[in-house]
Structure formats: C-alpha cells, structure tokens
Design goal:
heterodimer, A: about 160 residues, alpha+beta, 5-stranded mixed β-sheet, 3 helices, globular, B: about 290 residues, mainly alpha, 16 helices, about 0% strand
C-alpha cells in the first residue's frame, strides 16, 4: 500500500484502491479531498493562496499553488480517470490562522472565501469541512474506502 | 533574569559555538580580510566543508558550474553568500530534534532555514540593504527550543490546559509554567555564545519585537518571517498557530495583503531551490507544508 505525501502547492489523483494520500501540518493553506465512490477515483490538493492573478508565471508552473487554478485542475484530473462531477464527494480542511490576527494574516480566511466562491459558481456542494480556527491539521484520503481523516495538532485522527 | 537551576545547567552543557563559524563571521565582516584567509579557515573544518559544498551547489545560489573546493566556492559566491552557507552547514547540528514541541527530526531545521530565507525575501521587499545578521538571526531564532524542549515535555499537560482552555498563547504558557519562554532562553544562549547584541535581541524578542524601543528592523523582519512560516505550517510542531500577532506589522512595513502573498509564493520557490540546505539534517522533513 502506497502512502503519497502531498507537499505544499501540490496535488495528486489516483484510482488505485491500495493508495492513500496525506498532507501534513496545514496552517492557512487548504486541503481539498475529492472522491467518486462509483469510479473509485480520488484526489487531494494542498493549495496555499487564493488567487492566481498574483503571478501568471507561477500559476502556469505550479497551478496547485492557487485555489482558482488548483481546484479546477484537481477536478479535471479526476475526470480523466473516469470520475463524474455529479458523484464526487468533496471534503475540505485548513484555512486556520494565528491568535489575535491583525488584518495582515487573514490569509486563511481568504483561502476559505476563494474556495467557497469557486464551488458556488460551479454548483459544487461541500460535503464536510473543518476550516478556520487556530489548529494545524493533517489530512488523509483513503482510496480503498473514500474516507477522509483529519488530525488537529495534538489530537486524534478523526473522520471528516 | 532568574532561571531555575536545571535550566541553567542545561544551557551550560550546550556544546560551544563552533569556532569555525566564529572565525568566518569575523573575517566576513572585515573588509581587509582576503578570500584566501577565509578559505583557509573553512578548510580546517572537514565536516563543515563537506556540507558547504553541497549547499553551495544548490540551485538557491545559482552557480553556473558546480564547485568542488572551498576556494572556488568563495570566489564565485562572494563573502556574504559563503557566510550564509557556513552558517547553514555549521548550525544545522543543533536542530536535530526538539522534544516537547512534537516536531519530527529535520522539521525544526526546515523551519530555521525557511525563516532565514523568508527574512531575505522580506528585506528585499523592503529595500533594506543585504544584512548578513538577518540570515544568522533567522536560522538561530528558535535555538532556545533545544534547551526548552525537555521542560516543555515534562510540563506538557499544564501547557496544553492553558493554551486550549484558557486561551494562553504558547509563549505565555511557557512563561507561566516553566518561568521563561523559548525566545528569552535563546537570548541567554546567544549571550553565552557571545553573539553580537543585535542578533541576541532578534532571537530573544522574535515573538515580541514590540517590546524593543531602538527601532532596529532586524527583530521585526525575523518576527514577521517567523509568523508567516508558522501560518504556512513549515516545519512547525504543536505550538504552530498558538502565537499572537503583535503590533501593526503591516502598517509598519506598509505591506498590503498582495505583498504577503507574493512573499509566500517566493518562499515556496526558495525552499525548493534550497533543498540541499534543508536536507543536511536527515528526517522526514523537506516537504514544504502549508
């Protein structure tokens, strides 16, 4: 069984039921886990920033860095393996912030807003989420079951 | 400052600051020193030399052709960059593990490198002159955790109660339960290691630059860079987000949200280019996290 580690600004999709994918210590970044239970296709994205207009070159080189380029790429990569949008289960976690944040560190909130807007415009419903607050989170997607697990720093692994 | 006896004893048993780095710092700061002198000092330390060559050849320093000896490295990189490589090569040994903060081997070093690189990015954005103190202070900001870890581990239940139930920051909980925080303790280590005052202050106040009154930008830049790396989750432990934002750092630097986002994107790139610098401490770290 292969466990793939998804780094920051990275994504992976697979239809191998023996695989799992994990991304560690999410702070303000967001993990989007998608799964089609019929095609048994799943993907995990770990994006860092809300908006790709920041840097067109980086958006092209590293589309998984941004919500608005990473999320579409995650869905399209799943379609290539036979996933269907209507069947896809979408779960998200992350977007945390530090204590007493001044308006300067609201990057977590902006990441959450960017994702919500994109899903709303594309008629995608979020099935489960654990976002905001001031916890670091580790997120895991298990391909055999399609289950998503979230571990808050210092806490146990719990199903999302 | 009054430290309990066990902490004092732990500080005193820390290995001395590497002589090679001390000499290199002095030579690099002396405009009359020659490159030959610098190379001669570095060559005496074989462990550092091997790591320096690995670091020098990383994409981060952008050499056109790989170098295989210290003399060539210095000639192509210049004194300031050699100083950075020497710092990274020589100091990584202190960052192998910090129990208590629940970080895996290599993660703490990854965090140290990330803060040092972010300090450079931040300084460039502010058009602050390229100041070698920044890299040193960035790498060493959490040195106090090396000693604190043991005490944090012992007091873990109490610290957790304070941060989870009473909304303490991790720093405040360290002070309440152990009597000192990891930043101030790092300042004590810097004192024993006879560091210049500015670096000592940047270490001791890296969570509270607002308590300093002299207007030096270095502690603020290290503070900001550290906060951003914590927010991004790079090489952090259970204390990751339990820190307070102090002062109006954005206003002070006239940064907008976009500036911050751009700096984060640049850091991601720098960390990829500096992979060799991160990997000299082995462990599962090395993946950028966010």
């Amino acid at each position: 069984m292969a466990e793939h580690v998804i780094g920051i600004s990275d994504l992976k999709v697979t239809n191998n039921p023996a695989d799992s994918m994990v991304t560690y210590a999410l702070g303000s970044c967001i993990a989007v886990a998608v799964y089609d239970p019929e095609a048994k296709v799943g993907g995990l994205l770990h994006y860092m920033l809300p908006d790709s207009t920041l840097d067109a070159v980086k958006a092209k080189d590293t589309p998984a860095m941004f919500a608005d380029t990473g999320i579409p790429l995650l869905f399209k990569s799943c379609y290539k393996l036979g996933a269907d949008k209507k069947r896809m289960v979408v779960k998200v976690a992350g977007g945390a912030s530090i204590l007493d944040e001044s308006n300067f560190f609201r990057i977590g909130q902006k990441n959450i807003m960017a994702m919500r807007k994109l899903f709303w415009n594309n008629n995608v419903l979020i099935d489960a989420e654990d976002t905001g607050k001031n916890f670091n989170r580790t997120v895991k997607l298990d391909l055999a079951t399609g289950k998503v697990w979230v571990k808050r720093a210092g806490g146990p692994m719990e199903e999302l | 400052m009054k430290l309990n006896k066990r902490i004092l004893k732990s500080i005193r048993t820390l290995p001395p600051f590497p002589v090679t780095i001390q000499k290199v710092m002095a030579l690099a700061g002396d405009p009359d020193s020659s490159l030959t002198e610098l190379a001669a000092v570095i060559r005496l330390d074989q462990a550092i030399t091997a790591n320096i060559l690995r670091i020098c050849n990383s994409a981060y320093f952008g050499l056109r052709r790989p170098v295989d000896n210290v003399g060539d490295a210095i000639m192509h990189m210049g004194k300031k960059n050699v100083l950075r490589a020497v710092m990274a090569a020589g100091l990584s040994r202190y960052f192998r593990t910090a129990k208590g903060y629940d970080v895996k081997g290599g993660d703490l070093w990854e965090h140290a490198v990330a803060v040092a690189l972010m300090s450079q990015i931040c300084a460039a954005r502010l058009s602050v002159p390229d100041d070698p103190r920044l890299f040193t202070a960035g790498v060493l900001h959490d040195i106090g955790k090396m000693v604190m870890g043991e005490f944090v581990e012992e007091a873990w239940q109490k610290i957790r109660e304070l941060t989870e139930e009473k909304k303490y920051s991790f720093l405040e909980a360290e002070e309440e339960v152990i009597g000192v925080n990891h930043a101030v303790l790092g300042g004590e280590i810097a004192l024993i290691w006879k560091f210049p005052d500015e670096i000592l202050k940047a270490i001791a106040f890296h969570h509270r630059p607002d308590l300093l009154t002299d207007g030096d930008l270095v502690p603020w830049i290290v503070y900001l860079s550290n906060q951003v790396c914590h927010v991004m989750g790079i090489g952090v432990g259970t204390d990751a987000l339990a820190y307070r934002a102090v002062g109006d750092v954005a206003g002070r630097f006239q940064f907008k949200q976009r500036d911050l986002e751009d700096m984060m994107a640049r850091l991601h790139r720098s960390m990829q280019e500096a992979r060799e610098m991160v990997s000299i401490v082995s462990g599962p770290g090395g993946n950028g996290r966010g």
